[in-house]
Amino acid sequence: MTTTEPTDEVATLCEKLTREEKLRLVQGSPDPEGTATGYIPGVERLEIPPVRLVDGPMGVRAGGFEEGLPATAFPASIALAATFDPNLARRQGAAMGREAKARGQDVVLGPGVNLIRVPHCGRNFEYFSEDPTLASALSAGVVEGLQGEDVVATPKHYVANNQETDRVTVSAEVDERTLRELYLPAFRAAVEAGAGSVMTAYNRINGTYANDHRYLVREVLKDEWGFDGYVVSDWFATKDTVGAANGGLDLEMPGGSVADAFSFDASDEAGGKDEDHPADGPPADADFDLESVATGGMPGPDQGGVFGEPLAEALESGDVSPDRLDDMVARILGQLERIGLLEGVEATIERDDRGGALDTPEHRDLAERIATRGTVLLKNDDALPLSDDDRVALVGPNVDAATVGGGGSSAVTPFREVSPLEGLRNRAGEVSVARGVPEIESLSFEDLLPFGDDSDADQDADDAPEPTVEDAVATAAAADVAVVFVRDATTEARDRESLRLPGEQDALVDAVADAAERTVVVVNSSGPVELPWREDVDTIVEAWYPGQADGDAVASVLYGDVDPAGRLPVTFAPEDEYPITDERRYPGVDDEAHYEEGLFVGYRHFDDADGEPTYPFGHGHSYAEFEYGGAEITTKGGDDTETTLRVPLENVADRAGREVVQVYVRPPDADGPERPVRELAGFASVELEAGETRAVDVELEERAFARYDEADGWTVDPGEYVLEVGRSSRDIRSTATLER
Ligand code: BGC
């Protein structure tokens, strides 16, 4: 499978294409319409239409970084993961597919499926989970949704792109078993779900750049998994023509090098500006250190631009074979054919009739539904739900703006957004408001570019008086309940420095909690944060980055209009208790991050170390209350068939609610390689009316029992497996055993 078997139509096209035309198909170039993130020019004489690739994964980001064309801004991917509901992922994928088509785009650069290894990672909000089973299910869901709309999905970033610090140079030093059991499964699931494309990462894996990684790209992805789509580079990630071409890369994006794209002279240490491209290049007086750009989170000036002319030369010299070029082209055309773009289309294809749709009521509702369903009630000492006659004090530096997302390539410009203040006012009528402490500024890509424009910050400064904690305390004390909104600020290309909330927000919560009758804290974060005041407040709600529906979603959760059904897809713990505190592991030493914790990431680590997480993986309260009966194995799978576990569940509350039934596998105590104490094997999210009883079936793949053995591949050791059924990884309600 290293080489695809093209269909007849693709094979015929390949025969007709000249070498120059083929070379143009495997390298991006600027989009004449300026809407795409990446653009492949078509071949007009053969009716191969141009192809547009657009960023995801939380909505469609057409039209560039600054004020892109609007689209539905879905919640952070980690919020989607917190729903534990692949069906919602499928629906989000389909909605993004329709929005992409409405914007004339053919490929979505998402989902982001990297495992959350480092709690500080600046892109955790774009990813799903610390657990591969959960990440795989969500990854497959989004891919099915996108591909079902005839839009190519691009799971990214293959692979072990788990930190933003030094992401363009660092080598993830990771053993085979760990790669197989933790970091590869979500990609494999995406491929099995039909992804037409896979994006390689910036980083190296065991010393070799992902783009040039023959073993991972050709042997594992293409040969072993049978992936017949195309592999695309991350933007400006390429460095080596022959390495990438022979390693299995099929498409270079966005085309030229960083220096070409930004029209500056890479050899000029001061960042010389091309007078013809004043808007693109750094300002003439820019004073930046190219070295820091090259070794940080952003690709250096000489990266990119290795296909095109250099690839032509490599074909001439015989370093790259013509068959390889044909295979690249066949893989790309194969996907165009699959999504219907080769069907007798005009070169200037009419894309309007492909069923695209933007900002529909359905998409808006879905964005809100995912936000509420992904909201995790971390703690609730009865301060929630609010009642209609509660006098509410709304406190927090950012209550006037929705937390749409984080910074970087995933940033979507929504058509509409609802701030917490608007959402609460819509739901509650009047609320009193106090900001308390200075606003937490969002981070964006531009802040990291050496020639970024920071003039906005000054312009935004208005004459409003500085908020004070005293004012917040007085406002809170005069109300029945204080709802305090706190947040972090993250962006692609930079990790968080700490898991503490930025600014003076912790002090604000402390002060309000002292004064208020009841205190509810709503956290908008990209991943785990430390909550040092958690014993002093009544209720904590983790709402992640909720996207455009922020205020409406949180209001419906606070008032109990919906049951917040989110469960943690990551462990919350004090910063120094994660397994990556040693700098060898993170951010790495001498440009190598040693994944020495192996399989013991997230809850696997806390179980192994007998640690006490603040809030464990899978945790989340409900407004309802559920009782579990004895679990029973109804289908005893084996070989390649699934095992079914039937779990009787009763909602004993007097209101409807949603439960996420989680099944973990405890492997037998066998001699042989060490295994995690428990691993998530399957789950089901179900809604039960007040008093309703239901038998919930949870399907477990046979691989859930297996470990990866370097010699024998996936291996199910004989012995007794305990299936633990629970509300979280630390709240087991029932067990069943299974012999293998
Ligand atoms: C990111 C990708 C993104 C690409 C195009 C890169 O910086 O890592 O996730 O798709 O840019 O914007």
Question: Your description of this structure?
Answer:
The protein is of the alpha/beta class. Among the domains are: 361-574, Rossmann fold; 624-739, Immunoglobulin-like (Sandwich). Helices cover 26% and strands 18% of the residues. The chain contains 21 helices and 28 strands. Strands 12-17-16-15-13-14 form a six-stranded mixed beta sheet, sandwiched between helices. It has a four-stranded mixed beta sheet with strand order 1-2-3-4. A four-stranded mixed beta sheet has the order 8-7-5-18, with no helix packed on it. Helix 5 runs parallel beside helix 7 (185-192). Residues 37, 55, 109, 156, 234-235, 409 line the site of beta-D-glucopyranose.
Q: CATH class of the domain at 361-574, anyone? A: Alpha Beta
Indicate the proportion of strand residues. 15-25%
User: SS-based structural class?
Assistant: alpha/beta
CATH-derived architecture of the domain at 361-574: 3-Layer(aba) Sandwich
Average predicted local confidence, pLDDT: 92
Number of helices: 21
DSSP helix fraction: 25-40%
Number of strands: 28
Shape annotation: globular
Question: Biggest sheet: strands side by side, in what order?
Answer: 12-17-16-15-13-14
Q: List cofactors, ions and other ligands.
A: beta-D-glucopyranose
Radius of gyration: 26 Å
The main pleated sheet reads as: 6 strands, mixed
Q: Which segments are poorly predicted (pLDDT under 50) over 5 or more consecutive residues? A: 269-295, 453-459
